[in-house]
Amino acid sequence: MEPSAVSTTTKVDQRLDQARVWITELGIDTRTGFHPITGDASFRRYFRLQANGESRILMDAPPPAEDVTAFMDIDRRLRSAGLHAPQIVHANRQQGFLLLEDLGDDIYRGILHADNADEHFFALFDVLKTMALQVNTARLPVYDGTRLRNEMDLFPEWYLGRHRTGIRHARFDAIWDKFCDRIIVSAVDQPRCFVHRDFHSCNLIRTRENSVGIIDFQDAVTGPLSYDFVSLIWDRYISWPRQQIEHWMEKFRVMLGLDITPRQWLRYCDLMGLQRNFKIVGIFARLYYRDGKNGYIEMIPRFHDYLTDTLHRYPEFTEILKILEQPECAP
């Protein structure tokens, strides 16, 4: 076994030992043990346990890499708006442990398919509407132009810089700035609201009460109205026909009562989707090359397809499309 692997195993055991001590001090019997459940791309880990006869989720967010403060803040905001974020049963902010309500395992990734999409999406649109109109955004970070651009720049830095190195950067850089400017102008022109930032089928759970449970929201900001909507319809695991996507765009526009024409709203959504999907391709490459997380690189082709499909619809983006369609830029 490599020395780094020994160190990691020891550290993991130490964290679980600390969590067990904390939970026991709360008067909770944990003899049934901790059962790991799927995590995310961060340093956070999650475990299911039986706590005095009730199923709970332990979030392990090790300081200083993680801080549970933001999760606790956003959780309160969502629950205050009547949304089903998990109840925080106990918290140890200093050590980075939270004991949470268990929302279950029935994630929407396994629920959604072509025959039931409309039925379930309209329920999810109700959640999006509540987040946009009712969740308190006071003192949240702002998803501004600088932040949006920094995210887009992950694409040339990590995807072209490390994963697909055949593109001549001088040629790409000459059109990238102008392209990003147009995307960001569209984003900042939109009404602002609460933005979850990762609202997709793996972060949404159908609970036992048949409500929509929401998780992984600690990075929430105040930002463009269309952002969470495009996160949902351009999912990392499920691709929908363009006709269906445009139908949902108009449905959600009407639900929000927006004073925005259908054509303008479609453009807002498409360009916001481009921003997010360029960012995601860059992040997935970074997760592989910097963090050694292999599972994300295989998801890039779906997002590359999202990008080229949308770019084809806008003649003003022909130059960037031609670069993405070159063999040396293919996923």
Explain this structure to me?
The protein is 48% helix and 12% strand. The chain has 331 residues and is α+β, with helices and mostly antiparallel strands. It folds into two domains: 3-101, Phosphorylase Kinase, domain 1; 108-329, Aminoglycoside phosphotransferase (APH), C-terminal lobe (Aminoglycoside 3'-phosphotransferase, Chain: A, domain 2, Alpha-Beta Complex). It has a five-stranded antiparallel sheet, with helices on one face. Strands 6-9 form a two-stranded antiparallel sheet. Strand 4 (88-92) and strand 5 (97-101) form a beta hairpin. It is globular, with a radius of gyration of 21 Å. The two termini are 33 Å apart. The model is unreliable at 1-10 (pLDDT under 50).
End-to-end C-alpha gap: 33 Å
- Strand element count: 9
Relative strand content: 5-15%
Name the CATH architecture of the largest domain: Alpha-Beta Complex
- The value of Rg in angstroms is 21 Å
Strand order of the largest sheet: 1-2-3-5-4
Q: What is the average per-residue confidence, as pLDDT, rounded to a whole number? A: 92
- The CATH class of the largest domain turns out to be Alpha Beta
Low-pLDDT ranges: 1-10
Structural class: alpha+beta
